[in-house]
Each structure stands twice: as structure tokens, then as C-alpha cells.
């Protein structure tokens, strides 16, 4: 009898676990100074690039009805979401979160804990404490619709043959055994502490890093966020184990795909930089919008210092941090650092346009289609006011024909937006 779906996938996808603990001495030996590698997607040459946040956007579980972010249909961090992002030519890359299971397999999942419900109780398990097989058993299962269809075909066949107790027939028993295994429902904790059902209009199963490389269009770049829990102190050996497991998969399956790493963990960024010199490493920062025990994470100035000290290739900042401290853009450029941003304000095209004017290299967004189309319009030729007043529908005209008065209004508006809760 065939293995259950999650078990079969776990067996096939965990081949790298055995060699994940092997040292990446060869990669470390080739480590050179920053600048030997090209910046992600030739950022300096392409102006502003757009990346899809967890694919086509994160799932705003618990968001109030009508919220713009609620427009995201696909389950985040899935093959379905990545594939749809790849279909948009203006999207250069997708950002996704990678953690490593207990048995050494890199998987795609954002939250530190995975929540499910059994009877009336809610259970939470740390993702990195799970074996791959258990992780894959959460949420929708692959090919479940095919199994259900086959099962009902068997039932119909039994009825046609007129068996009084169809479930006593061997092939019907087999069909019952093959019926879609009951997956564990996925729940999520909202920012206000509520635990709610985590569903998506267009659902898909959880996946591994290897699957993403194998099944997503190779033209789409990957921003691999190396995910670590803020509340845990990691020994060097723990960081090494996780980073080497990720690097093993990337080295084997990336081929010519554009890839770069990012992480909020400054030591993980430094170690990944030491382990290899092929893929750029960027430091993630909240840009001073939140405070941490580790001072390296508490400002844009500290983030730039970390990049220079550890010879990283750039930083990814919460957009409010950049808009509050625009001089950081100039300092990053003078230091030959790439600068990308993330955050809710990146779903407002006016805020993205201000960053375009400031020289920000890229934005990570949730409203992928809307913002990627807007950014594509930014580089179109400037249209004069008479053309705009003619009533002709010119796509992108609004982005390039700002007057000084309009730009002044935007510069006033952005700080006002920053003060709003997001």
C-alpha cells in the first residue's frame, strides 16, 4: 500500500538531512570581501524592483472586513502563491521564510509556532521541534481531491454490483484506507492574542525549500529569509546546523536563479556570509520602529554599521524607518549597500513613489499586482500637463507627472501615514 501523502513527501524531501550537518568548508574557503558578488537582481542597474511578500502577499488573519490587505487570496508561503507571483512580469522576486525541521529539512513557514485544534483544545508546537512528516500533515494535503474522487468512484461501482454491504468488499476497504488523511487544521494567533481559523480563498499545502526551487519558474528570484525566534539565544552550533541545511538545498537546486538571503539575526547574517560568497546576504531591520535587547537591531544607523562590519551586501528595513530617516538612503548608497523596504505602507503606491524618488532599490509588498504595475509605470516618460488634461487614458501618467505642489503634499502625507497604526 502506498505511503500516506505527508509520509511519502517527507521521505522524498528529506534526502538532504543526512548531509546537512556536513561542514561547508569549501564554501567558506571561497569567502571574499563584499562586492565580489553582484547585488541582488543588479539593483543598481534596474532602479526599483518589486518583491512579493510571502508570494502574492501575507494572509491578514483577523483583519477587519474590507481591509485592503484582505484582498490577498492565496495561502502565503505556498507553491500556489509563488507561482502566481511568477506570472507577473514586473515582480522580480518573492520573499519567504525558511526554518529547519528537527530532522534537518528546510521548510517554508513564517510563524515560530504552528497551531492546530483537537476536539476543543488548541495546541501549539514550535516549528523547529517538528519532524518534516508532521509539519507536512498540517493544512490541506496534496492530491486530496483526487483521492476523494477515486473513493466515490469505488462506492458507485460497489452499488452498481449490488453488494448489500459494500464496505465488506476488499477494494472498498482499500478505498476507505486511501481516503484523504484527515489533516490537522491550521489556526493562527492574531496581533491582539485571539486564535482564529487560518483559511484562504485559494488554499494550498505547506511546502519545503526544495519543492519551491523545483516547481517555481526559474526566472523568479528568491529572497530567502533565514528565520529565527527572537526569544531564543542560539549557540553557534545551532545557527551553523540550520544555515548549512539551507545552503545545502540552495547550492544543489538554485542553478541560475537569482537568490539572496536576509535575516533579522545579525549573527546568522555574519555566519551565512562566512559560509559562502556566491549569494548576497542582507540584514533585516525594523529601522528603529521597535526595540530589542540586541542593540544591533534598534536603528538604521546600527543596521548600516552591521552591514559594513560583517561585509554584508545591504539591508531590508521597515519602510517607516526609512521615511523617518531619509538620510539613511544616502548613507547606504555611499557605502555601496543595497536598500530594500517592507511593511504595510508599501501597499500604498504614493509611499512607494516617494521611495522611488529617494533611490530605494526595492520594495516588498502584499498587493503584488497593484504595486508592481505602479512601479512599472514610474519609469515611463514624463507626460506634460496638456496631455493629462486631454482626458486621454494614459496608464502610468499619474506617477510621472507630479507637480512640485503634489510632491510637497506627498512629503507632508507620508509622516501623517507613519503615525497611523498598521
Outline, from the CA principal axes?
globular
The CATH topology of the domain at 40-116 and 207-369 is TIM Barrel
> Could you give me the name of the CATH homologous superfamily of the domain at 40-116 and 207-369?
Phosphatidylinositol (PI) phosphodiesterase
The gyration radius over C-alpha positions equals 24 Å
| CATH architectural designation of the domain at 40-116 and 207-369 | Alpha-Beta Barrel
Which percent bin holds the helix content?
Answer: 25-40%
- How far the N terminus sits from the C terminus, by CA atoms, comes to 51 Å
Keywords: Glycerol metabolism, Hydrolase
Domain GP-PDE: 59-375
Organism: Oryza sativa subsp. japonica
Pfam families: GDPD
Explain how this protein is built.
Helix 7 (144-160) runs antiparallel to helix 8 (170-178), helix 10 packs across helix 11 (266-275) and helix 15 packs across helix 16 (368-378). Mean pLDDT is 81; it is low at 14-32, 175-180 and 383-401. The strands form three sheets. An eight-stranded parallel barrel has the order 1-2-9-10-11-12-13-14, surrounded by six helices. A two-stranded antiparallel sheet has the order 4-5. Among the domains are: 40-116 and 207-369, Phosphatidylinositol (PI) phosphodiesterase (TIM Barrel, Alpha-Beta Barrel), CATH 3.20.20; 380-422, no CATH class. The protein has 422 residues and is α/β, with parallel strands linked by helices. 39% of the residues lie in helices and 16% in strands. The protein has helices spanning 5-13, 17-20, 25-29, 43-46, 79-86, 132-136, 144-160, 170-178, 209-215, 236-253, 266-275, 300-309, 319-324, 327-334, 349-358, 368-378, 385-388, 397-400, 404-418; strands at residues 49-53, 91-100, 106-108, 113-118, 121-126, 187-189, 195-197, 207-208, 221-226, 259-263, 281-285, 314-318, 338-342, 362-365.
Amino acid at each position: 500500500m502506498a505511503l500516506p501523502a505527508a509520509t511519502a513527501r517527507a521521505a522524498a524531501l528529506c534526502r538532504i538531512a543526512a548531509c546537512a550537518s556536513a561542514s561547508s568548508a569549501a564554501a567558506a574557503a571561497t569567502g571574499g570581501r563584499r562586492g565580489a558578488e553582484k547585488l541582488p537582481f543588479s539593483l543598481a542597474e534596474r532602479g526599483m524592483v518589486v518583491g512579493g511578500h510571502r508570494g502574492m502577499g501575507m494572509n491578514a488573519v483577523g483583519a477587519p472586513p474590507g481591509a485592503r490587505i484582505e484582498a490577498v487570496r492565496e495561502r502565503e508561503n505556498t507553491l500556489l502563491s509563488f507561482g502566481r507571483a511568477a506570472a507577473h512580469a514586473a515582480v522580480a522576486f518573492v520573499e519567504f521564510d525558511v526554518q529547519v525541521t528537527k530532522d534537518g529539512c528546510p521548510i517554508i513557514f513564517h510563524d515560530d509556532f504552528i497551531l492546530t485544534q483537537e476536539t476543543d483544545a488548541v495546541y501549539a508546537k514550535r516549528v523547529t521541534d517538528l519532524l518534516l512528516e508532521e509539519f507536512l500533515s498540517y493544512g490541506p494535503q496534496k492530491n486530496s481531491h483526487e483521492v476523494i474522487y477515486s473513493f466515490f468512484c469505488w462506492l458507485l461501482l460497489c452499488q452498481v454490483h449490488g453488494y448489500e454491504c459494500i464496505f465488506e468488499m476488499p477494494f472498498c476497504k482499500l478505498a476507505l484506507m486511501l481516503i484523504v488523511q484527515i489533516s490537522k487544521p491550521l489556526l493562527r494567533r492574531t496581533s491582539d492574542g485571539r486564535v482564529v481559523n487560518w483559511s484562504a480563498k485559494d488554499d494550498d499545502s505547506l511546502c519545503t525549500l526544495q519543492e519551491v526551487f523545483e516547481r517555481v519558474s526559474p526566472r523568479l528570484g528568491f529572497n530567502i529569509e533565514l528565520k529565527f525566534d527572537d526569544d531564543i539565544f542560539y549557540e553557534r552550533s545551532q545557527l551553523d546546523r540550520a544555515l548549512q541545511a539551507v545552503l545545502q538545498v540552495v547550492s544543489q537546486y538554485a542553478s541560475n536563479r537569482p537568490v539572496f538571503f536576509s535575516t533579522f539575526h545579525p549573527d546568522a547574517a555574519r555566519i551565512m556570509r562566512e559560509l559562502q560568497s556566491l549569494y548576497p546576504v542582507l540584514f533585516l531591520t525594523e529601522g528603529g520602529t521597535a526595540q530589542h535587547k540586541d542593540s544591533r537591531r534598534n536603528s538604521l544607523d546600527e543596521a548600516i554599521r552591521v552591514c559594513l562590519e560583517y561585509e554584508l551586501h545591504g539591508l531590508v528595513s521597515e519602510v517607516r524607518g526609512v521615511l523617518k530617516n531619509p538620510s539613511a538612503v544616502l548613507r547606504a548608497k555611499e557605502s555601496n549597500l543595497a536598500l530594500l523596504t517592507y511593511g504595510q505602507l508599501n501597499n500604498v503606491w504614493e509611499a512607494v513613489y516617494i521611495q522611488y524618488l529617494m533611490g530605494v532599490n526595492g520594495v516588498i509588498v502584499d498587493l503584488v499586482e497593484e504595486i508592481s504595475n505602479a512601479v512599472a509605470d514610474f519609469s515611463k516618460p514624463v507626460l506634460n500637463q496638456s496631455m493629462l488634461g486631454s482626458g486621454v487614458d494614459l496608464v502610468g501618467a499619474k506617477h510621472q507627472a507630479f507637480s512640485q505642489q503634489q510632491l510637497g503634499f506627498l512629503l507632508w502625507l507620508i509622516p501623517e501615514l507613519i503615525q497611523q497604526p498598521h
